[in-house]
């Protein structure tokens, strides 16, 4: 696996040309192998930004470049050879087995319509099943799995795509705390560049190298978690009273939140 360099310049988006701009121009640079967490209140534009990064939305202004190549200069297939996505929506292929679903990740690498699966495909699929510890579930149908197991299958499918950039939309949604920690641990261990939206700010601080804070379609801050997730920035962006404490003996920072209007 090779990690991508992601470079975003003056990127903005509106549903229609001349319509309301839902994402104001923003720029950032993510070095290969880094994990970026995108955080912000409901409706801040997290999913919109991710959709621009995986070439679902075409920018109104600006560019998304992966290893120096503008995504919109690539075919959809060539983009899918570089970028894989794990979305919140569960697929409807409930009757397919886990191995079938993971094999779908090879689609962008197949030659022509109905191109056959080679020995290398089989090797990559087994590797992805191994990494997500899915061998015992490989023959089960997706519909028979728990939400956490399904999430692992979707990550395995994304890895079978052999991307350089992996994008995840709220990968911890619907997972219990153990599975949340496991999925974030896994994300950290992958030798890829990763962009993920997350709601839990403490998990974000623990799992990400960089954080991008969005509010009403605008980038409020970008950088190290300790810098971006300050009490003031979090309080203002989420309209709460945020307090940061240092936990002992780990020395990790931990945010707690209160409704500000409870004190007035
Ligand atoms: N295609 C669209 N047409 C019109 N409005 C849209 C479109 N896509 C998103 N929006 C609006 O843009 C805003 C940002 O939506 P987005 O889904 O990116 O937010 P989010 O930060 O991911 O929210 P959440 O945390 O609730 O998932 C919302 O107000 C949403 O209704």
Automatic annotation (TrEMBL):
Domain spans labelled ABC transporter: 6-241
GO MF term (any one): ATP binding
Listed Pfam families: ABC_tran
Key words, A-Z: ATP-binding, Nucleotide-binding
Entry-linked Gene3D superfamilies: P-loop containing nucleotide triphosphate hydrolases (3.40.50.300)
Cross-referenced SUPFAM superfamilies: P-loop containing nucleoside triphosphate hydrolases
Keyword Lipid metabolism belongs to the record: no
Designated name of the protein: ABC transporter ATP-binding protein
Origin species: Jannaschia pagri
